[in-house]
Amino acid sequence: MTKASIPLLRKNAPLWAQLESKLACSEYDARDVGFLDKPALTIGMGMTEKQGGSDLRTNTTTAVAAGSGAWGDECLINGHKWFFSAPMCDGHLVLANAFEGGLTCFFVPRWRPDGTKNGVHILRLKDKVGDRSNGSGEVEFHDAWGGRVGELGRGIATTVEMASQTRLDCALAGAGLMRQALVQALHHARHRFAFGKALADQPAMTVLLADMRLEAQAALLLAMDLAERHGSDEAADATWRRILTPAAKFWNCKRSVAFTGEAMEVFGGNGYVETGPMGRLFRQAPVNSIWEGSGNVMCLDVLRAVSREPQAALQLLQDLRAQLGAEPRVAARLDGLQAALRDPEQLARRARWFAQELVLVAQAALMLRHASAQAATAFVASRFGGDWGMVLGANCGTSDPAALLREAWVE
């Protein structure tokens, strides 16, 4: 959130001049003092209210004008946030109704600029399933000081820019969780012996681990490719970001939930005890799928992006076709995506299908470009065959799954 706040805070030039070096600092300052007195800052966000959840238009928190200061328009904010992430941060980007202008984004620090505590009252910390070391709070604002960030009445559009960055982080986190779970499972399976040989050499386990390896590799390639495109000014990369970021967030995070469950099973009963690593990974995975928009929200965002720029969406599919070459199985799925774009009424009902197909095609293109020939061939054969998808390990796309594991594990 600190990283993602930077493009938003730049919209208030005088405030940004005060915060830039503090946000760029790589040292953490844990002191509870005013943000002007710290060399390093962390930034959180307060958007969600209990009556609306993802529907930010229903927010009721208000902001009343309190004059203009060194950093522009100042307001006093009153209301409630159901999820305030994360309350230990030095400041938060908060969405509130400025009655004369509508929903607007404000920078709300823990301490007011005059050195007094701000009116942010923490009611409780959420008792979350996982992610416990990163607090989430429920708060009330009582005349909390806030400085406007972005245009008046453009708060949702402003925060969407932040969400694009944090959704990329979720896609990266999903890939990272899968990679860590895979490494843990591979290590255990290579050192645990049953019925006369290592678990990793038992045929069913070998296929499962090979399939998990393909899943983790494709997820990582998609997330890292997206990260590279987020630093580009090219029009094609901008289209890719707008359409693929929510799709990648949906798919990587959704798959990581099942993936960490499979990795836990590799350990057997030892995977289900807190003294091992798998319990935390398993509990952590769902938060990325929920945070910054759940699965349906992400898939609807994909459809919203393609409906707003249909020609750009078609061009993206054409670019993917060019990258895939003459691979007929993937080309057939691309044909299905193009046909779906011509029927927007039906497409709304098939939002998850469209996001899934788009991600798999993009992953196939990336695997063909960056993975070994063996891994790329296995990915296409499994993901674009007729008997893949219900559970990991049903089909890893090759008759030599052990070879995929030899590539995945480097001594």
Could you provide a short overview of the structure?
By secondary structure, this protein is an alpha+beta fold. It contains 13 helices and nine strands.
Record keyword descriptors for this entry.
411 residues, alpha+beta, Butyryl-CoA Dehydrogenase, subunit A, domain 2, Butyryl-CoA Dehydrogenase, subunit A, domain 3, 2 domains, 7-stranded mixed beta sheet, two-stranded antiparallel sheet, 9 strands, globular
What would you say this structure looks like, in words?
The structure is a single chain. The chain has 13 helices and nine strands. It has 411 residues and is α+β, with helices and mostly antiparallel strands. The chain folds into two domains: 2-153, Butyryl-CoA Dehydrogenase, subunit A, domain 2, CATH 2.40.110; 158-408, Butyryl-CoA Dehydrogenase, subunit A, domain 3, CATH 1.20.140. Strands 1, 2, 3, 4, 5, 6 and 7 form a seven-stranded mixed sheet that branches. Helix 8 runs parallel beside helix 11.
